[in-house]
């Protein structure tokens, strides 16, 4: 049995009846050429020449400047963001170190947990280059002391947090290295001064003490906020003072 509407069988092309006389629809429906068609397997085709869902991806921008840039497709994040370099976090940490009176307690936990090492590497290179221009080649000592001191202070920071302190147990090595590296910035100023004036005198000793205390104050505030320690800033500041004093001795003495 078939049903007709204006002389055309219901169900489109290919519709027919089975042996029992009941209407049996076809698994494929015909549409005008170039339009969307149904294949009977749950998929829809948008016609010839169309992309996925009928939307073609935006092409990459052309030109020499775009070729040398870090831009990608519009829907992709920038390259620096993909490799973990966030300039907003770098500027925020640098400002906190440069302003000793600014409390690190107001910094968000996201910035404290940021394990960025781009800023510390720049500061250590600047420190070594300043010593080199002052006639002191200490690149090996700088990176050796930095690595040994970071490992020691990282383990000490984790031990200072009790078993109930989840922040201490979750502290990563690169978090500690990032904090110690950013707070190394004041010692770069000491090395820059040493390029124009000998630090092996009373003025140099005073300046070295001031910059070491500056770095110690900033780093102890960062670690105290990150680990959420109570009344332990002076305790954690003591090993930090020794750590930064070694670099100050490199800048003062030949």
Our Rg estimate from Cα atoms comes to: 33 Å
Total number of β-strand segments?
6
Q: What proportion of the residues form beta strands (DSSP E)? A: under 5%
Q: Report the helical percentage.
A: 40-55%
Task: Summarize model confidence as the mean pLDDT.
Answer: 74
Instruction: Tell me the strand order in the biggest sheet.
Output: 1-2
Q: Residue ranges: pLDDT <50 for 5 or more in a row?
A: 11-15, 27-32, 46-52
Order of helices and strands: EEEEEEHHHHHHHHHHH
Number of helices: 11
Task: Characterize the main sheet.
Answer: 2 strands, antiparallel
What separation lies between the terminal Cα atoms? 106 Å
Principal-axis shape equals globular
Tally of domains: 2
Alpha-beta content class: mainly alpha
Domain Yip1: 108-250
Keywords: Membrane, Transmembrane, Transmembrane helix
Family: Belongs to the YIP1 family.
GO biological process, one term: vesicle fusion with Golgi apparatus
Give a quick set of tags describing it.
254 residues, mainly alpha, two-stranded antiparallel ribbon
Task: Note down, in words, how this protein is organized.
This protein is mainly alpha-helical. The protein is globular. The termini are far apart. The chain is built from eleven helices and six strands. A two-stranded antiparallel ribbon has the order 1-2. A two-stranded antiparallel sheet has the order 3-4. It has two domains: 1-56, no CATH class; 87-252, no CATH class.
